[in-house]
Amino acid sequence: MAVPRQVAGSGALATSGMESILQALKLLLSPGASDSSSLQITKHDVLLATLSSNLSALEDKLLKDPHWKQLKLLRDEIASQAEWPQNSADVTWSFTCQALLLLLCLKETMIRLAADFNPGKPDPRTPEAAPALSPDTLSISQQKTVQSALQFVVTLGVCPYLMPGVGVPLRCRTEFGAVVQDVVCLSAPPDATCRLFTSCRVLLSVAGHTSLRSLVFCCHFGDIAAGLCQLGFCPTKRKPLKPEEEVLTEEERTFSREALRDILDQVYQPLAVRELLLLQGGPPQSHADEKTPVRRRVPAWLRRLCGQLLSERLMRPSGVQAVVRGILEGAGAGAAGGSDAEAAAADWKKCDLIAQILASCPQQSLSPEDYYRGLCPQILDLFHFQDKLTARQFQRVATTTFITLSRERPQLAAKFLLEPVLAPLHRCLNVAEIPASEMAPGTILVTEEELSRCIEDVFKVYVVGNEPLTVLVDSLLPVLGVLFSLYCFTRQSVSHIRSLCQEILLWILGKLERKKAIASLKGFAGLDKSVSPLPSLCEFRAAPQGGIMITVKETICDEDEDEALYQKVSSEQCQAEHLGDLLSHCQECGLAGDFFIFCLQELTHVAMEDEAELNTKRFSGRRVLELEQHQTRVEDQGRKLLVLQLLAVLCERMSEQIFTNITQVVDFVAATLQRACASLAHQAESTVESQTLSMSMGLVAVMLGGAVQLKSGDFAVLKQLLPLLEKVSSVYPDPVIQELAVDLRITISTHGAFSTDAVSVAARSTLSRKGPEGKTKEQPQTSHEKNTDESDLKQQQSHEKSRQTGLKSHAPPIPPEVGGPRTTTNQKSGSITTDQLQEVLLSAYDPQIPMRAAALRTLSCWIEQREAKALEMQEKLLEIFLENLEHEDTFVYLSAIQGVTLLSDAYPEKILLGLLAQYDGGKDKRTPETRMKVGEVLMRAVRALGDMVSKYREPLIHTFLRGARDPDCAHRASSLSNLGEVCQRLDFLLGSVVQEVTACLIAVAKTDHEVQVRRAAIHVIVLLFRGLSQKATEAHTTGLLRFWKIDRIMRNPAVQLCARIP
């Protein structure tokens, strides 16, 4: 059954052309004319008649047409060399043989034409002309003819002879396929297996030509592969008694096996994977619809064979991509993403299926470790595709595979997946293991690409995968300190990985146990040394391409010790602020509240320290023990400062919803009571502020008074306060506090069954000081009330901070008579009397801070409500507000700022110009701090003006430009910052002053000696570049191009980072 050899030296082959062969194929494949007059004729008869008619027509043409004489000689020559039977009683097989002979003639002709082709040298006079085509090139119409012939060969010569369950049956394909299956006569010689072997072998021979290979394998690879599987691997039922009884010899079976592996290696690998999956079959189909043909179950030997071949495809180089593409493209995703790529990527079932395939170790693998060693790098490569549609599919598959492998084989996943992903971060922590010769200052430890890829991969695995597996969480814990340091560095300027770092940190903090999460936060704040931050030998730097890299830090000279100390202090302060920003996203889960309570408990330990011991002896440094004790005291002092700094940041960043359950509220009250008892025990006089203590006890009274629906479990939590309340009632000197502590103990002990009037009064007093929560639901909260509530919160924060730092504040609670704007909010315009106005004006000069602040808030409320009597005294009110701007208490000057803002909104023509004079020319009368507060008032007024700010464009810009030349560096920086915001509010329509602004910014950025001022100038430049349109950029090219040169002039690294315009 050998395929005929190439005809060498044949004159027929030399003279016959492709055209006559293709015409013969068309004649053989032409549809026949059916006899419509007979109603008894069937589709089977029509098909057989057409095949017989076409065969006769082809023979007549070859015999009678002189132009086809050479083709007949060539066909006869090839047929004589063929060792397979060509004549049969079965018309379908005779038709198949003639088609195979013509395809072999076409192949031989194309080979000879290509060998004789000599294109010659190209004409240099027409270099744009296309090169001459090879004579064996097929046109589009000729390719269609060849494809039709191949389809007939496969349909008549391959598919009918496949065993049940091997490949897709003809009946399940088309109606014509069902007809073909019925007309094939399997009883006529030659045998079905012989026919299948002949068809597959001749098709493989035809595919040996490059131009014909794609036509053969593009549409018919699956059927040919199915035939070769059956021929080479199907087990025989019995051994034949005689050699002549063998249908296939062992050499032919070996040929089939080798041919199958050859074509699997030659074709597009995703196509091979897809066809093998189809051959392997899926789960058994249901028989719900009797009309639909049901595919037979795939034989066991074929399932095992396809599984083995798929495993071989998988373990080849880029085998993972081939498997993924084969499954996804088979689902309709397309070769390069395709129109259905998003639908395929969104189908989690397919991703889970691929993940299970990849994570399952094949049986023929030597060991699981060897398999995953070769597989895991390919899985990581799936994360890094650039094409968007393909990347979405591959990343989802990679994430699912990552999670599946981590769940089923955690040790191997940690070794081959997690370690490579986190390697750049571990490299920073293991700097001590790097030889000193490779640690020269400025050496790049982690490149920009490595760090960006690491953070992106961690985000895709941890956050997108969102599976808190133990191996994943444990692997991320050692590098959390480095991640937080990187997050803090990204907050200094624009960075594409800032949001990724934040999401990773929020994810791990949310998935950790609460104790571990608090320990991690302590490490971020510098209170726990078990969390390793970025080593002191390393530092983050801005990379040339806009990313971040990690390098060896430059050595600090002795002269720069002050600068190093300043950098250390400012870095700790920035870390605390960034930690507060991070925790502001963790309020709903309760983590922020728990960490706030931890800080309060640490503050209690600070209060319990005996400060006298630190000043008993002067430190001499002569003894080792004394040196160690001194070092311990210094570390304790640093820890206390960190705690105070954290509390200050948390009080500023957190909202009133920081506590999410009663347990946290009780812990907060317990920390406050413990601190009160500790202060009383270690100091001669009572320095505990009565407001803080009464507020915490008032919270308990509010809960017990019915504001919260308490359950029996809640009273069990409240009982933790009983020992502390008993201690307060016995040691606190104020009898009112003592009585309230006793009453609270009784109410908690009786589960609210008995409650005294003191508890009710404390609850009402606390609710009257709350913000919108203390109002009835029918009263809407105005914008002014919202602002005053924020002022209330800031006043409490200010008092808390002052008490934490040891400052005394004897301000009594705000009396109900002057309780701020809440006493006048519901009053209609014109309802205030002259006496009320005079009383409030006098209270604005009261030495008591709460009385003064409440009066300022009341005046602000009247201005907002346009009270006629108050607006008649606008100059007096402006004077009062400006005087209170110089007050050192936060609550007072914030209330004054609010009042001046409302005045300028009501009378911008008069008030705004006066404020500009105060900001610009009042430097001899006002302190720098007051001028900064006036600047804040101006910015609030500008925001309130909205589009009307353009009317005051020139006075505002000129004032801030003059401020940029002020001797005070803080005022210069503030002026530049205000200038940037004014430009934003003007929508960057600067008009004729744009040249003045650009000249000022360039001069400051080049010549100013202070870093913060140069940073402010660079910040305004960045705002201008972002806000100016393309036309504006073209119009001011001369001025704007000078901005780009500033990046080369700046020497400070932070300024250089800010100066890089994306």
TrEMBL record:
Residues 770-803 have a biased composition (Basic and acidic residues). Residues 314-588 form the TANGO6 HEAT repeat domain. Residues 837-948 form the RNA polymerase II assembly factor Rtp1 C-terminal domain. Pfam families: ARM_TANGO6, RTP1_C1, TANGO6_N. SUPFAM superfamilies: ARM repeat. One of its GO terms (biological process) is protein secretion. Residues 766-831 are annotated as: Disordered. Residues 822-831 have a biased composition (Polar residues). InterPro entries: ARM-like, ARM-type_fold, HEAT_TANGO6, Rtp1_C1, TANGO6/Rtp1, TANGO6_N. Residues 15-313 form the TANGO6 N-terminal domain. Belongs to the Tango6 family. PANTHER family: TRANSPORT AND GOLGI ORGANIZATION PROTEIN 6 FAMILY MEMBER (PTHR20959), TRANSPORT AND GOLGI ORGANIZATION PROTEIN 6 HOMOLOG (PTHR20959:SF1). This is Transport and golgi organization 6 homolog. The lineage of its organism: Eukaryota, Metazoa, Chordata, Craniata, Vertebrata.
